């Protein structure tokens, strides 16, 4: 690359990095993009996502009768974020700007790039407590046609175009080890060239070094992601006071290259890190029967009807219901063990089980409306869910309840369950299921979900008794904790400039995406509203590219 002198170096070729590079090129800046993985991994973690975006007052919402506004969304965000630290000033400012963007120019910008959305808006992370607390008051989760691949595609195509036009150079298998700092300002980067790799996207790659590099530029943008693939670092920062002890066993929701190396490199150069104890991990993780990366986990996206039990066999109380309060449920699970259980029926799994990830949703990723109708409303669950039911280590299917529980105990012999205790709890729930009156919070939630036409159409089973053999077979699913997102990281101001521990600007250094908590060093606060990870990469990447 001796013939190319960049104005801006972007470290990380994921969604935030591509967005930043594109915006910089639009300003006439020459951009060098570096990534330790190969060209086949362009797009990073976003490629594997479901492609959900948090957007406000959209045509998709209005067609479904959903009344939303920036004011309502900001109220939900503040109730979820619970900003309470002095260092939350910049994250809060980023959050407020993101909500305005989500209610303003976000959809039209992405629509102009070619993105389109599934017409049924998802209602994720519903909260389940007071109006001023955590959760989305209305459905806001817009699934992009093509899922994560559909979000990545327009930006990947732009990278190819900018490279062809001579405005961008992409240096794959370039691992940055240090930031070059002179006179208190960042002037460039140095690191290792790794041997070429033909490993498929997401698979582990070699770390054998074949050379070294040093590049200089006026500005450097860090977009290297979080720590979810490095469980040692996850446990190091685990908020024991809020969530309890970290599990000894977790599955990985991201590839192993999501290791958080850049946090330490940036800190060594003088960057400030904040809110490292804030993180977002899911409770509904499955061991992938067909893994791509080490310890590969897949998350269940459940509807509201599965009965959820802790490791002791006690039914979890509201708001710790499927789809309502991720971190509250995580704390509740860890108070009793390290895993939990869904007990459900074939009717429930057919209507309500979805799996997160582009590769688990072929109808939405590669198909169209007819494919979706066939997969979501035909006989059986989706092919991906049926494959997990047949081959997944965490699934048990039986006609007889006692046999089901015996097999559950064989799967977790160190945490045996009492069949009579489970049966009593399920029977008590079943007694109230077909009555218009009830005192069961989960049944109330099911009825509430079915009042939303989107949920009734494709996400919520008709209420029925779980122990009625006509609704079987019975299904038990062991759920593991699955690591996913960092909610804190490098501290930035509202111009995406990296700040020192004292709050001073580090000249020449910017950050975007998960490495800076999606903006400011943690714009989610303590809780995410979903669709805000991809959206945060897009928004913070855009700002960084416009400022660097």
From TrEMBL:
InterPro entries: FAD-dep_OxRdtase_2_FAD-bd, FAD/NAD-bd_sf, KsdD_DH, Succ_DH/fumarate_Rdtase_cat_sf
Keywords associated with the record: Flavoprotein, Oxidoreductase
Domain of life of the source: Bacteria
Molecular-function GO term, any one: oxidoreductase activity, acting on the CH-CH group of donors
Entry-linked Pfam families: FAD_binding_2
Range of residues in the leader sequence: none
Domain FAD-dependent oxidoreductase 2 FAD-binding as annotated: residue spans: 7-534
Listed cofactors: FAD
Cross-referenced PANTHER family: 3-KETOSTEROID-DELTA-1-DEHYDROGENASE, KSDD-LIKE STEROID DEHYDROGENASE RV0785
Protein name as catalogued: FAD-binding dehydrogenase
Organism listed in the record: Sulfitobacter albidus
């Amino acid at each position: 690359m001796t013939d190319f002198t960049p104005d801006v170096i972007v470290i990380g070729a994921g969604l935030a990095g591509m967005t930043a590079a594109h915006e910089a090129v639009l300003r006439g800046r020459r951009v060098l993009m570096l990534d330790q993985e190969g060209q086949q991994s362009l797009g990073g973690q976003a490629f594997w996502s479901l492609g959900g975006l948090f957007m406000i007052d959209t045509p998709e919402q209005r067609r479904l009768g959903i009344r939303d506004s920036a004011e309502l969304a900001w109220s939900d965000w503040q109730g979820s974020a619970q900003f309470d630290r002095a260092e939350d000033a910049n994250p809060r400012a980023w959050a407020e700007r993101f909500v305005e963007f989500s209610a303003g120019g976000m959809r039209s910008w992405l629509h102009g790039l070619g993105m389109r959305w599934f017409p049924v808006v998802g209602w994720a992370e519903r909260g389940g407590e007071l109006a001023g607390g955590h959760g989305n008051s209305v459905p806001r989760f817009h699934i992009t046609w093509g899922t994560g691949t559909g979000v990545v595609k327009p930006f990947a195509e732009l990278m190819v175009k900018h490279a062809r036009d001579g405005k961008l150079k992409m240096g794959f298998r370039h691992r940055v080890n240090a930031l070059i700092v002179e006179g208190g300002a960042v002037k460039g980067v140095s690191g290792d060239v790794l041997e070429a790799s033909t490993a498929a996207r997401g698979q582990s790659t070699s770390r054998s070094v074949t050379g070294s590099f040093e590049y200089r530029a006026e500005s450097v943008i860090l977009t290297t992601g979080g720590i979810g693939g490095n469980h040692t670092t996850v446990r190091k920062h685990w908020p024991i006071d809020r969530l309890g002890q970290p599990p000894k066993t977790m599955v990985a929701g991201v590839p192993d290259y999501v290791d958080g190396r850049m946090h330490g490199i940036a800190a060594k150069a003088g960057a400030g890190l904040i809110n490292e104890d804030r993180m977002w991990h899911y409770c509904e993780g499955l061991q992938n029967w067909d893994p791509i990366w080490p310890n590969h986990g897949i998350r269940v996206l459940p509807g509201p009807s599965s009965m959820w039990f802790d490791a002791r066999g006690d039914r979890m109380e509201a708001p710790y219901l499927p789809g309502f309060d991720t971190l509250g449920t995580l704390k509740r699970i860890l108070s009793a063990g390290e895993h939990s259980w869904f007990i459900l029926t074939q009717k429930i799994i057919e209507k309500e089980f979805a799996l997160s990830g582009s590769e688990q949703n072929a109808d939405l990723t590669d198909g169209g409306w007819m494919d979706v109708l066939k997969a979501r409303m035909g006989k059986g669950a989706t092919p991906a869910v049926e494959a997990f039911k047949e081959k997944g280590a965490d699934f048990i299917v039986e006609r007889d309840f006692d046999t089901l529980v015996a097999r559950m105990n064989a799967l977790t012999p160190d945490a045996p369950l009492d069949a009579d205790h489970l049966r009593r709890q399920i029977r008590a729930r079943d007694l109230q299921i077909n009555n218009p009156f009830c005192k069961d919070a989960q049944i109330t939630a099911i009825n509430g979900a079915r009042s939303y036409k989107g949920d009734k159409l494709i996400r919520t089973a008709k209420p029925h008794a779980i122990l009625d053999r006509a609704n079987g077979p019975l299904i038990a699913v062991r759920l593991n904790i699955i690591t996913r997102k960092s909610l804190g990281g490098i501290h930035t101001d509202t111009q995406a400039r990296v700040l020192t521990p004292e709050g001073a600007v580090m000249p020449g250094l910017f950050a975007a995406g998960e490495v800076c908590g999606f903006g400011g060093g943690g714009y989610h606060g303590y809780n995410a509203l979903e669709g805000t990870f991809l959206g945060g990469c897009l928004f913070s990447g855009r700002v960084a590219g416009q400022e660097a």
